[in-house]
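Progress note, sequence design subtask.
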């Protein structure tokens, strides 16, 4: 192998390596940061790009598509000292690659930590019930709070979603016990209210019954008085009809006593026949 051939081969290799280092083809959705001798020199856009080999180097490769950042679950203490668990997910986009690589060491980790600290601050200003029911409000305040910081880092926060916001296990147990106690209290109150209402209705029923009984007795007494008045007016001074009616009533009473199902033994006066006969005889004689 001659020396000239080796030289040609070396030159060819040098040319190939130089072309490989100088030609850069970027895919859509990426931008590369180029440094020359350790200093920022330019940003390569998608497509064909030429850089100076051995002087320029691609220092950073950035994705300009939307980036999904998962913010891990963390414990947050509310204003009323309740512990809740929450996590989030953020959608960001690199809008200024230079700021993104030179403004902060790791923009993704920086945004993630910023979301965590801001989330703790926002929830810490709320009561437990408010925090659990204000997911949209927390999301809006969170996005608003980190938007300015993100701009300084060459980023745009497109959206921040609260994935979960729930009480811790100890808080869940406490809330379940509280809910159970509240249900028992309501059940006891409902039972007491029912008993109270039943007692009132029962008393009102007794009162109404007593009033009606009293009215019935008054009406019966008035009817009896009217009957007596009419009988007295009809018979005048004669006692015969009264004795006759009294005898009939006496006999009817004895029949009812004898026909009663509970009356197993009926004790009659020894002079019953004489008494009835006397009453009827005195009645006929008087008439």
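Output:
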């Amino acid at each position: 192998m001659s020396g000239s051939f080796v030289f040609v081969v070396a030159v060819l290799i040098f040319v190939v390596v130089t072309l490989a280092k100088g030609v850069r083809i970027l895919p859509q959705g990426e931008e590369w940061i180029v440094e020359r001798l350790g200093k920022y020199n330019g940003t390569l856009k998608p497509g064909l790009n030429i850089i100076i080999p051995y002087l320029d180097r691609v220092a950073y490769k950035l994705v300009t598509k939307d980036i999904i950042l998962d913010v891990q679950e963390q414990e947050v203490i509310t204003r009323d000292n309740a512990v809740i668990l929450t996590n989030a997910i953020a959608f960001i986009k690199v809008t200024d690659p230079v700021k993104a690589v030179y403004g902060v060491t790791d923009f993704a980790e920086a945004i993630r930590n910023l979301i965590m600290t801001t989330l703790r601050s926002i929830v810490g200003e709320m009561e437990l019930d408010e925090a659990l029911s204000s997911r949209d409000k927390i999301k809006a305040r969170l996005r608003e709070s980190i938007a300015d910081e993100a701009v300084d880092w060459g980023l745009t926060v497109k959206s921040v979603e609260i994935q979960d916001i729930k009480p811790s296990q100890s808080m869940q147990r406490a809330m379940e016990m509280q809910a159970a106690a509240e249900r028992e209290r309501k059940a006891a109150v409902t039972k007491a209210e029912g008993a109270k209402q039943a007692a009132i209705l029962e008393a009102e029923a007794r009162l109404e019954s007593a009033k009606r009984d009293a009215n019935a007795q008054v009406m019966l007494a008035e009817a009896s008085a009217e009957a007596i008045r009419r009988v007295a007016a009809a018979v005048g001074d004669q006692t015969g009809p009264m004795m006759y009616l009294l005898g009939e009533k006496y006999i009817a009473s004895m029949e009812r006593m004898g026909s009663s199902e509970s009356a197993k033994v009926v004790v009659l006066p020894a002079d019953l026949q004489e008494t009835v006969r006397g009453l009827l005889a005195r009645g006929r004689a008087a008439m």
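The chain has a mean pLDDT of 85. Work on this subtask will continue into the next period as scheduled.
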